[in-house]
Amino acid sequence: MVIILNRIPQSEYPRDTRSLYISHPIYRETATTLLALPKRVVGPAGLLYVLQREFAVTLPDDKNVSVIGSEDATTCIIVVVRHSGTGAVALGHFDGSGTEEAVYDIIDKVQKLSSSLDGRIEVQLVGGFTDTHCISEKLFRDLMKAFHQHPVDIHLTLACVGQMNTDIRDGVPWPILYGVGVSVKTGEIFPATFPDKGPEEHLRSARHLSGNRRILDIYDPATGLFTIGPFDYSCPVGADFLEGQDDRFVLENLSTSPEVEPPHFVAQIRATFRYMRENPAERVFQGEKPRCFKRDDHSGLWIPVH
After folding, report:
1. Sign of the dihedral through C-alpha 69, 214, 126, 135
2. Average pLDDT for residues 4-9, to the nearest whole number?
């Protein structure tokens, strides 16, 4: 079908954020509204945190999840897909890998959870900025193309991306929002930061750092299980050399936007490399079985399922 901008079906999808905001100023206004909201610090209880190259989908009546969220998006774009009838909501953290396949996977799962009610598929985009290599703009264009080519109509309701998510500091463009949360019950989206990023953060990061390009579904709302893997991973060539270099060297070689990464970026990379070296995939996923977690009824935290 087509992508629908401001209730108007489009014969072509927008190729860049500038043309979107010029043709449809409503997206500038809604982005400004989001940017004006205070940033919330979201704790781990009831949180379903989505890392880079992951997505998750659930329903408003999910007793295990109250907020889906993600952050640390610089050139990445956080994509929220919601069905207006059932309130089924998905959040994915896109970095340019596996974009078209993940768009189809997310919409398919939201539709399957919403088959019994009328409604429309709504999409919200947050993240990316006017980086010097135009990485965010290319990702925006790829997302728009994937949504436009999908068999169902897609309504874009928010786009806080590109120039609208950019602040200039001493001549250097910076992202304004690095992360957002979504209330599962209401669909409200808000600026957010997440001190706790869920179970097995280093294991989950190992997947994309070793070159796995697919965006994975990490949650089953029917069972309430948070599932990791199984997948293969290994330390990238040169990881030992990189670990011996200073932080600036690591930033310049492993980041798409070294000037604007959050302060914990390098520490996270180093910790993930150590994890990969010390915990081979065949030992972590013995018998090629996934690592599963469920919500503890008392603490609200994720605990292992043995």
Report:
1. positive
2. 92
Cβ neighbours around 40 below 10 Å, total: 16
Q: Give 298's DSSP letter.
A: T
CB of 88 closer than 8 Å to CB of 114:
yes
* Per-domain boundaries in the chain: 3-200+212-228
Tell me the one-letter amino acid at 261: E
Residue-wise pLDDT tens digits, 99-154: 999 999 999 999 999 976 789 999 999 999 999 999 999 999 999 999 999 999 99
3-class DSSP state of 48: strand
pLDDT at res. 280: 92
pLDDT band at 207 (very low <50, low <70, confident <90, very high): very high
Instruction: Give me the CATH code for the 3-200+212-228 domain, please.
Output: 3.30.1330.200
Q: Which residues on neighbouring strands pair with residue 40, listed in sequence order?
A: 192
Measured over the CA atoms of residue 200, residue 202, residue 109 and residue 73, the dihedral's sign is positive
Residue 1 has pLDDT above 70, yes or no: no
Give the CA count within 13 Å in the CB-facing half-sphere of 227.
18
CB atoms within 10 A of CB 198: 22
Q: What are phi and psi of 44, to 5 degrees?
A: -75, -25
Sign of CA dihedral 296, 300, 303, 305: positive
* Residue 300 near residue 46 (C-beta atoms within 8 A): yes
* Residue at token pair 């890392």: 51
Dihedral angle of Cα 34, 69, 202, 177, to the nearest 10 degrees:
0
